[in-house]
Design a protein that fits this description.
This is Alcohol acetyltransferase. The chain is an alpha+beta fold. It folds into 2 domains: about 160 residues, Chloramphenicol acetyltransferase-like domain (Chloramphenicol Acetyltransferase, 2-Layer Sandwich), CATH 3.30.559.10; about 240 residues, Chloramphenicol Acetyltransferase (2-Layer Sandwich). The chain is about 35% helix and about 20% strand. Strands 9-15-14-12-10-11 form a 6-stranded mixed β-sheet, sandwiched between helices. α1 packs across α3, α7 packs across α8 and α7 crosses α11. The chain is globular and about 60 Å long.
Length: about 475
């Protein structure tokens, strides 16, 4: 239905001391081992346009159909290069998957700055990994890069690597797939939650109570061209360390903090008459909730294990944020509110979770068709795939940046913030949105606000201006 096409996780690979770059001869053997070890990278999808979709066995995978190499010219600075990567990422989000019954729906692009680039761009290559969300979730995107990094560094140590280059892989036997969420997570739904949620989602609209609709930019519009745009905001390691420390002091997390900073930005840029209150979403990994029936072989497999929680920021809270002279107090209150809600949600899992109700909907196509022209449920999303940890060896490739974005969500949040970081290094915030649903000026303002908040914090210890 072109409502959501892909998730994308891009990692920046810094060359080893030998100066070795990532070319076909190095990449293909390493990638082949990752694909061979991960069942979800070698299946297709049948009947995607029906409510009876299913994974299918693909007997051969040609890596050349999934891999591209690109050199970006006119990238004299890191900021210019990052802008090019953000544009490339948006392009990947906007591409329709073709022949997915025969070709697994994922791709990687190996991108590098022009050969003349120097300084921080010397020896840098980015690998953009884009994938159909039915195969994997965001955490799996990070895990893919962790596996690929390990295999690339292993390949560096192989003799005559150039002689083993092949792009064709054969899988005559169908793989055993990781279990579906509802098979290995003991979802339990109370009668009250079951009835209320099913009624709210599936009951006749004329009989349901009218919902208060938060600011959501524009209603879902299926006729709007599906074009995803992305924009990056990076924060350096020392600043990130300060943010982590102060979050702990205030009983919250980086995820809670960026919800609060987004709320402060939205409140300052949208008038109360247009946006009296907000709502937002946080995806939650379900990996910690695997039950005893889960096959331990698939514990670290690439797969989909994710739920979410919606936060409400009611009108009095937003009005206080707009009118407060102590911006920091308001920001920390909201950050703590988000963290406390997530704590309660996680503590209750897997009881009363929306994933436990999916089996009651037999017509997902019809379910989504009804959303065309309807208000979106929230204002923004903050999704954090966590910290990328490089291996201890110093002679191989190392990842220095993780840039994570969701594709535009036609029936979901109009603005998404994807957080990815490297241990001891960069925190990157990937902002994504659908072209013409949210204006470029608004997103540029949000990015500028996030930068200003954090820069001011680094310089003064406060997010808000001093009065």
């Amino acid at each position: 239905m072109r409502l959501y096409l892909s998730v994308t996780v891009t990692c920046r690979y810094n060359a080893p001391t030998s100066g070795q770059g990532i070319d076909e001869a190095l990449l293909y053997p390493a990638l082949a081992r990752v694909v061979s070890a991960q069942p979800m990278l070698r299946v297709g999808i049948l009947g995607e346009d029906t409510s009876k979709a299913a994974f299918c066995h693909i007997k051969s995978v040609n890596l050349a159909n999934h891999v591209s190499f690109k050199t970006l010219d006119a990238c004299g600075t890191v900021d210019q290069y990052n802008d090019h990567i953000a544009a490339q990422q948006g392009w990947h989000h906007s591409q329709t998957w073709l022949n997915i019954q025969d070709v697994p729906p994922w791709r990687i692009a190996v991108v590098k700055p022009s050969p003349a680039a120097a300084g921080e761009l010397s020896g840098v290559q980015d690998i953009i990994f884009s994938f159909h969300h039915a195969l994997l979730d965001g955490n799996s995107g990070k895990l893919f890069h962790e596996n690929l990094l390990r295999e690339l560094n292993h390949q560096l140590g192989q003799e005559a690597a150039n002689s083993t280059t092949t792009s064709s892989l054969r899988f005559p036997d169908a793989p055993q797939l990781p279990e579906a969420q509802d098979q290995i997570i003991a979802f339990q739904n109370s009668p009250l939650y079951l009835v209320k949620t099913l009624w709210d989602e599936l009951g006749p609209s004329v009989l349901r109570a009218k919902k208060h609709v938060p600011w959501h930019s524009k209603p879902s519009g299926f006729s709007i061209p599906y074009v995803t745009l992305t924009k990056a905001v990076d924060f350096q390691g020392p600043v990130v360390a300060k943010l982590l420390a102060v979050c702990r002091q205030h009983g919250t997390t980086i995820t809670g903090l960026f919800h609060a900073l987004a709320a402060a930005s939205f409140a300052s840029r949208l008038p109360a008459s247009e946006a009296p209150f907000f709502a937002a979403t946080t995806p939650i990994s379900l990996r910690p909730f695997l039950g005893p029936a889960a096959n331990p072989e698939f514990k670290q497999s690439l797969r989909v294990l994710v739920s979410s929680h919606e936060h409400e920021f009611p009108a009095p809270l937003v009005a206080h944020l707009r009118g407060s002279k102590d911006t920091d107090q308001s920001i920390w209150e909201i950050a703590q509110r988000v963290k406390n809600e997530l704590n309660r949600k996680v503590a209750s899992m897997p009881r009363d979770d929306i994933n436990g109700l999916m089996k009651y909907n037999s017509d997902w196509i019809g379910f989504f068709k009804k959303k065309d022209g309807q208000p979106r449920p929230d204002s923004w999303e903050v999704s954090n795939i966590g910290v990328f940890k490089n291996a201890s060896e110093e002679t191989g490739f190392a990842v220095s940046r993780v840039y994570f974005t969701n594709g535009a969500m036609v029936t979901g949040s109009p603005v998404a913030l994807g957080l990815g970081s490297v241990a001891g290094g960069l925190l990157s915030v990937g902002i994504s949105w659908q072209e013409s649903v949210v204006g470029q000026e608004f997103v540029d303002g949000l990015a500028g606000d996030l930068t200003e908040f954090v820069t001011r914090f680094d310089e003064t210890g406060k997010f808000g201006p001093q009065h």
